[in-house]
Amino acid sequence: MANEANNFPELISHCKEYGYIFQSSEIYDGLAAVYDYGQMGAQLKKNIRDYWWKSMTQLHDNIVGIDAAIFMHPTTWKASGHVDNFSDPMIDNKDSNKRYRVDHLIEGFAEEQKIAGNEKLADEILTTMDALIAASDYAGLKKLIEDNKIKCAISKTCNWTEIREFNLMFNTQIGSVAGESDTIYLRPETAQGIFVNFLNVQKTGRMKIPFGIAQTGKAFRNEIVARQFIFRMREFEQMEMQFFVRPGTQMEWYNFWKTERKKWHESLGIPTEKLRFHDHVKLAHYADAALDIEFEFPFGWKELEGIHSRTDFDLTQHQTYSKKKIQYFDNDLNNEGKPYGNYIPYVVETSVGLDRLFLTIISLAYANEKWIKEDGTEDSRVVLRIPAKIAPTKLAILPLLKKDGLPEIARELMDDCKGSFMCFYEEKDAIGKRYRRMDAIGTPFCVTIDHQTKEDNTVTIRYRDSMTQERIALSEVKKLVLDKIS
Ligand code: GAP
Predict the structure, then answer these.
(1) 31: Cβ–Cβ under 8 A, 6 or more apart, which residues?
(2) What value does the CA radius of gyration of the chain take, rounded to a whole number of Å?
(3) For 405-458, what is each residue's pLDDT tens digit?
(4) Minimal CB count within 10 Å: which of 288, 400, 442, 465?
């Protein structure tokens, strides 16, 4: 069976056509790098989020979840370092006025060289770039751009400004009077809501180290280069977990979560060969070790999740800025039989973008299949092979005809199943057409109620992935679906 999948523009139109993802405020020509999830997309996103939440907070008995506000006291961002350090090096082309993130500009050029067969040059450029970024050597980076005659995609010139830093946080005013002191930020990461609540959760939950606090929620970044559909957005959702550990044990936990998180992605059906680790060359201001779990997206290997050893940086900063003691009393015994005592815990963070994971799942699921039937004619379908456990609709219930009591039986089955999982009822169009529509939205199971159902209480169940069909008892349908999605 031929699969012409992973054609990215086709996937984007498919997401729109079947109610997965729409451009935000499309009737006003959209807003760059902001997207809305439609009826199918919102459900798939919720299922992915629930799967993450359950794996963190239900399957680990030492991790609890919270839901902190998006708005936080402005000092939070001063303490965390985001006001001073959360910026990217940018360069402008003087002829087109187009602004580029320096690493994206150079990576794009290296990619072109690879495609043109100049692999060696591409690797050399990327290695040099990594070293210059690690040393924050902006003059060196500009020279690298100029020496390689890297051009602006619009003006096609090499007329570049100096490299400058741009802060990525959005700000707004709180209350009715605008002024410096009223400026607050839209959070650029959910993590700080966890740090400022560390003591609240530890005390009220009687948590003992090591333990984790998990959270999902919106984050906002004024990304200058926003591209590749929902890969890089200005408003996006994160699923983060801060794991608080005894100082000195952070590398042990860093390695634990590195392995654990890769396994988790594989449990969602992501093939192991499509995932890889990438160690950071330049560490963020808060980290003593960091890596990305990368996925091979249709446009290349890119970051899906970050694992960061954040030391005691954030809690120490919040202790300093708030002038409130943020410490943990560890009364477990050390080698000398004494309590470990008071300390500021170290933190290992796992941080995955929900939208990026959505893009990962949907780009793996999308397939445009063609095959030759037994009679020699060609057939085709577009299918979303979304794993059944996270598919937005689990079961389509399809009466063969709109009469003869078949819709009544179908409705009864729908009433029996809809409390347990998402069902879709459809009685319009020929059955083949209805199956194709269910393939296109990714429904893993279809059940057809026909005249034989009235005689022997059996139905036809059709499996999306194999397209095979079998006859089973009507009374078995709910159990079969529950077994497959659990
Ligand atoms: N708290 C740590 C943190 O925010 P990050 O590497 O900047 O670390 C974590 O972000 C994850 O959030 C990334 O791995 C990515 O999946 C997602 N992410 C970051 N920026 C994004 C954006 N502009 N659009 C979509 N997802 C984004």
Answers:
(1) 23, 24, 25
(2) 26
(3) 999 999 999 999 999 999 999 999 999 999 999 999 999 999 999 999 999 999
(4) 465
pLDDT in tens, 189-238: 999 999 999 999 999 999 999 999 999 999 999 987 667 899 999 999 99
- Contact 355/236 with Cβ under 8 angstroms? yes
- Residue 206 tokens read as 């009687």
Structure tokens at 297: 């997206």
Cβ–Cβ < 8 Å for 278, 294: yes
In testing the pocket of ligand 1, which one of 101, 243, 264, 356 has its CB within 8 Å of the most ligand atoms? 356
Beta-bridge partners for 184: 172
CA dist., res. 195 & res. 82, Å (int): 14
Query: Are the beta carbons of 190 and 240 closer than 8 angstroms?
Result: yes
190 in contact with ligand 1, CB cutoff 6 A: no
Torsion of the alpha carbons at 109, 115, 117 and 120, rounded to the nearest 10: 40
- Ligand 1 atom, smallest distance to 191 CA: 1
Helical residues (DSSP H) of 205-345, grouped into ranges: 250-267, 313-322
**CA distances (Å), origin 348, targets 20, 253, 256, 330:** 34, 7, 10, 18
Question: Which residue's alpha carbon is nearest to atom 12 within ligand 1?
Answer: 353
What 3 state SS string does 368-405 have?
EEEEECCCCCEEEEEEECCCHHHCCCCEEEEECCCCCC
Residue 244's Cβ-side half-sphere holds a number of Cα atoms within 13 Å equal to 28
CA–CA distance, 348 with 252 (Å, rounded to integer) = 10
Contacts of 119 (CB under 8 A, 6+ apart): 113
Q: How close are the terminal C-alpha atoms of the chain, in Å?
A: 29
Residue type, 290: A
Ligand 1 nearest atom to the CA of residue 190, by list position: 1
b/e per residue 299-325 (b: at least 16 CB within 10 A): eeebbbbbbbbbbbbbbebbbeeeeee
Say whether 432 sits in a helix, a strand or coil: helix
